[in-house]
Each structure stands twice: as C-alpha cells, then as structure tokens.
Design brief:
Elements (H helix, E strand, L loop, with lengths): L17 E3 L1 H7 L10 H14 L6 E3 L3 H9 L6 H13 L1 E2 L4 H8 L6 H13 L3 E3 L12 E3 L1 H18 L13
Parallel strand pairs: 1-2, 1-4, 2-3, 4-5
Helix pairs in contact: 2-7, 3-4, 5-6
C-alpha cells in the first residue's frame, strides 16, 4: 500500500516562537564580554526571517530587555549609540506583552532572579517553544526548552527553505541585468 502525500500547498507551517534572553543580546552588542556563542549568527537568521516577511520563527524578548539594553549600551543619557542599538533590536524582535498577573507570577519563582523569572513568564505568555540563552538554569518548571543561540539558528534556515519550497513558481518574463 502506497501512501500519497498531499501537494506542498496543503502543508501549513506552524510558526515556532522563541524568546531571546537578554544575555544573548548583550553578547551581540559586546556588553556581556562573551563572543563566539552564536549570537551574531542567530540575529543574522532573525533578520533574514524578518526581511523575507514569513516570520516562521517569531522572535520575542521580555519587556525588561529594552530598558536594560538601552542603559547598558551607553552610560550617557539619550545617547545616539543606545538609541541606535534599541531601534535596531526593535526592528527584529517583538516585546512580549506582559500584564500585572504575569509580573505577580514572576515573583513566585523562588530559585531564579526576578529578571530571569520575567523572561520565563514572557516565554509562557507568547507560547515560546525555546528560550534562547547562554545561561544554565536548573529549573524544572521553565515554560520553554533552553537552547543556545547556535542551536536555534538552524531553525531559521530550515523555515526559510520550507517557505521557499512552498512558494508558487514565478510567472512572467525572465529579467536579467547586464550582459
């Protein structure tokens, strides 16, 4: 018996939301002191996903990340460096919409810092499958699987390959430039 697969157009790719930890973003902009942990590759993949318009892997951050990044990226108030760093980040990721109950929930995480608890709550709020961080948590109740930036970047490449395979063939004349 042979099983027929439906045409590719019948497949629906489900987005896989992630929450990017503040530590990864700090590493990216050179604040964390760590380099080579895959933060650059991850954000290149996020940028490609955003540019393609598919958003197969929506990237989120916790609400605490924005002011923290702004403050740590430059100590001078209203600095152009801080402004540019935050502006670039907000073009690539979404900020998780937390409410009062989310913050109250974060208060009850007794075995992690409040800042990390806010990131866990952000994972739960957006339905994240992965929490992308370089930190190691021995927390069994974390709402998403912990992954390193290097482990998550291939997810974006796979999603963009699937999106390209599902696009209808281009119609019209073949246009080329040059000789």
């Amino acid at each position: 018996m042979r099983i027929r697969r439906p045409p590719r157009a019948d497949y629906q790719i489900t987005p896989t939301p992630i929450v990017v930890g503040a530590d990864v973003i700090m590493d990216l902009v050179g604040i964390g002191g760590r380099r080579g942990n895959g933060a650059e590759e991850l954000f290149e993949a996020i940028a490609a996903d955003v540019e393609s318009g598919t958003m197969r892997v929506p990237a989120w951050i916790s609400p605490l990340t924005v002011p923290l990044l702004y403050h740590l990226s430059d100590s001078r108030p209203r600095s152009a460096v801080s402004f540019g760093v935050v502006q670039d980040l907000l073009r690539l990721v979404r900020v998780a919409p937390l409410d009062n109950m989310d913050y109250l929930s974060a208060l009850y995480f007794s075995d992690v810092d409040f800042e990390d608890a806010i990131q866990f709550v952000a994972c739960r709020r957006v339905g994240a499958r992965y929490f992308v961080t370089s930190k190691h948590f021995d927390v069994k109740r974390a709402p998403a699987e912990r992954r390193t930036p290097m482990a998550v970047a291939p997810l974006f490449r796979a999603a963009s390959r699937e999106a390209a395979a599902n696009e209808p063939p281009a119609s019209g004349a073949d246009i080329s430039f040059g000789g």
